[in-house]
Amino acid sequence: MRDTGLNLPKRSSKPRGNGLTVLIDNGIPLQLFQDTINSSEAYIDFVKFGWGTAVVTKHLEEKIACLQENGVNFFFGGTLFEKFVSQKKLSDFEKFIQKHGCQYIEISNGTIDMTNREKAAYIKEFAKNFTVFSEVGAKDSDKSLHQNASQWVEWILEDIEAGSTKVITEARESGTSGICQSNGEMRMEIVEKILETGIDLQKMIFEAPSKKLQTAFIQIAGPNVNLANIPFSDAIPLETLRLGLRSDTFSLSERCLMTKEYKGNKMSADSIEFFI
After folding, report:
1. Distance CA 243, CA 182 (A)
2. What mean pLDDT do residues 252-265 have?
3. How far apart are CA 44 and CA 23, in angstroms?
4. DSSP 180
5. What distance lies between CA 32 and its chain's CA centroid?
6. CA neighbor of 139 nearest in space, from 215, 51, 210, 75
7. Contact 162/142 with Cβ under 8 angstroms?
8. Model confidence over 3-30: pLDDT tens digits?
9. Does residue 267 carry a pLDDT above 80?
10. Do 152 and 194 meet the contact criterion of CB atoms below 8 Å apart?
């Protein structure tokens, strides 16, 4: 970042535990992948090879090599883990990730019929040899609406206790399920419950595929909130949102604080305060 003399929010530097930006690769062309990583690596912490795209991506090895050359970590989507589980081939899953030098695993239960307790058992086992990111929330929008805020918090805490380094809140690459409603609006009651419970936000990664969601989470939790499912085209735009260099977060200061002033399940505009 250029030195301009501007007073901007302080960003954590790589390697970092907070302020993570996780891009999602849904099968983009190799040249676009390499161009983005080579030009924006300072602002990218992880790339997730979405759902099962790693199985059919032609240039997977070249993409991984590009990430390693630029100090960007990677992992495979939790749906791929679930596919191996559904066919009782976990040993093959472990071979697959080891073959590609992957040190991080996403463990989820968003698609298959798996209780969170069962998921926690997988977390505990894989945490012995890998850094585990777990995911909470269903991919089916109808099913996700029946998962209330208290259940979300219970599952998040259970995952952390089992050994998950970070817990990812489901939103899908479309931002229409999990922590979001089918119309793309955030389910604020879940976010509020997470904040009320006092869960360390450094332990959380919020999927935010749209500018609207990215802006909302930055306003709620500050510029160093962990965000995932970021499109490759948003690597630089997201960084400008974090730094208050875009109209949507123009008034963002170095520290933000969410107050406890709520109106039912809706957050009032006055519940976010900014401090210079």
Report:
1. 29
2. 43
3. 7
4. B
5. 22
6. 51
7. no
8. 889 999 999 899 999 999 999 999 999 9
9. no
10. yes
How much is the pLDDT for 1? 79
Angle, to 10 degrees, between the axis of helix 188-197 and the axis of helix 149-162? 50
Angle between helices 90-99 and 78-86 (to 10 degrees): 140
DSSP string covering 33-56:
HHHHHHHHGGG--EEEE-TTHHHH
CA 275 – CA 252 distance, rounded (Å): 8
Cα distances (angstroms) measured from residue 80 to each of 48, 89, 93, 129, 138: 11, 11, 8, 18, 15
User: Amino acid letter at 66?
Assistant: C
Contact partners, residue 140, CB within 8 Å, separation at least 6: 111, 177
What type of residue sits at position 90? L
- Tokens (6 digits) for 115: 């209780």
Q: Which residues contact 64 (CB under 8 A, 6 or more apart)?
A: 74, 100, 101
Q: State the Cα–Cα distance between residues 4 and 140, nearest whole angstrom.
A: 46
Cβ atoms 177, 140 nearer than 8 A: yes
**Amino acid letter, 20:** L
Could you tell me which residues come within 8 angstroms of residue 8 by beta carbon, excluding any fewer than 6 positions away?
Answer: 243, 244, 245, 254
Secondary structure (3-state) at 7: coil
In single-letter form, the type of residue at position 182 comes to: S
Distances (CA, A) of 49 to 53, 73, 98, 168: 6, 11, 15, 15
DSSP letter assigned to residue 75: E
- Residue 19 tokens read as 């302020």
Element containing residue 267 per DSSP (H, E):
strand 266-267
